[in-house]
Amino acid sequence: MSLAPRAVLVHRRTEYEELLARHGTHGQAAFFLSSRGRSIDEVARRHERTRQALRDVAAAVPLTWRSTRVERADLDRFLFAPEDVVVVVGQDGLVANAAKYLSGQPVVGIDTDPGRNPGVLVRHRHADAAALLRAATAAGSTVDALTMVEAVADDTQRLVALNEIYLGPPGHQTARYRLGPDGDPAPGEAQASSGVLVGTGTGATGWLRSLWLERGSTTPLPAPSDPRLLWFVREAWPSPATGTSLVSGELGRGQGLRLTVESDRIVVFGDGMESDALELTWGQSVRLGISATALRLVV
Description:
The chain is α+β, with helices and mostly antiparallel strands. It is built from six helices and 18 strands. It has a six-stranded mixed sheet with strand order 2-1-3-4-18-5, with helices on both faces. Helix 4 links the parallel strand 3 and strand 4. Helix 1 crosses helix 2.
């Protein structure tokens, strides 16, 4: 007997809640903001809009379903199940934060602040939640399958991301490694740089695009559903021992980029979540490529 669907409402603390956690009371938070030329009124209004959206979405969950909530800071400790319908209530970035922990569950993006958020991934309003939840579990439901990038280390550690994966040194040091196509018997080019970025079409409006523009790349940026990744080496340093001939490229399905560490420590993290990073050390290698799992975003 199959389990009833479970609605998992993903949210994050609002700016108002963070201010209260830091300053203790509404009055102290208001004084802090006023001393910097800001008013707490708009912050409190945005907080209430977010809370109301969460209440409305929770009320829209069918009575025969199960439901739960998870805060952004707890995503790495939350166990998603195959029958889950994930409802992200917040900003576009929150969808990316949740995506790395999913394995094909449908995702509904609810925009809590239309006009302030771009609405690229949180495309819907909370008033439509009931219809969206029914659509997410209906046969033949329409979803956008957004390409994701993955990093798989030689010790089986794995990381996936919706926008991009960054590999580089912690802090402001220099990473030393060898870089080359996966499967090539050659050891790859020795490089010293501030890191490597591998991004998707969803990430092509952010960090990936800034590197693409900086390099004046003629390779077209991928669309979110394209089975294609772009990668760039950041600030590669030429020296007698390190080269700069492999500083950008494109990966299709089945293709990979391999990086072998030649320094004390390199971190690998996705979508800006450095707190949930892989750590690699001397001699370890990692393969970057298109993930077999896509983000299934309900349209």
